[in-house]
Amino acid sequence: xxxxxxxxxxxxxxxxxxxxxxxxxxxxxxxxxxxxxxxxxxxxxxxxxxxxxxxxxxxxxxxxxxxxxxxxxxxxxxxxxxxxxxxxxxxxxxxxxxxxxxxxxxxxxxxxxxxxxxxxxxxxxxxxxxxxxxxxxxxxxxxxxxxxxxxxxxxxxxxxxxxxxxxxxxxxxxxxxxxxxxxxxxxxxxxxxxxxxxxxxxxxxx
Length: 206
Prior knowledge:
The chain is mainly alpha-helical. 67% of the residues lie in helices and 3% in strands. It is built from nine helices and two strands. A two-stranded antiparallel sheet has the order 1-2. Helix 2 (18-28) packs across helix 3 and helix 6 packs antiparallel against helix 7 (143-181). The model has no long low-confidence stretch (mean pLDDT 86).
């Protein structure tokens, strides 16, 4: 998630100090993406440079400065709420890169990698499920507390679904590896003779 947009969204509610922004961001996401104060103030400095936030007044007795959105910053938050999250650019996923390279590097046991990863992901899923069960049993008083609990449960659901999807994908990888192992070496060489990008380029040049 873009930290810039997250901080702007929080400042759309009310002016906040850097430490407040850090605390609110972490509490609403269940500490899934922890921030450090230096990171928050660096981001605030850049937002101020870009004309999206400004000081809400002078420093208090402790030397803290609260920030608020400018009109330009408020417009940016409004656009963010209205627009879909960009999924066109593929993020770098270390596991996908690891398996893609393992297939092409001689001497690497890709099946062991898949099995090791599945074990780790299943353990992670179990801990998430236990955490979700415990969170659902907690009673948080007040509407603000309930809203933060719901926010954390949405994040937790996303992590659970992602872990389940990863396990299904690893199962698919094993199936594909087993199927590929039964093919004749000549057929495999023909199928991997060129990359998808090269095949696309060759087809376009005809």
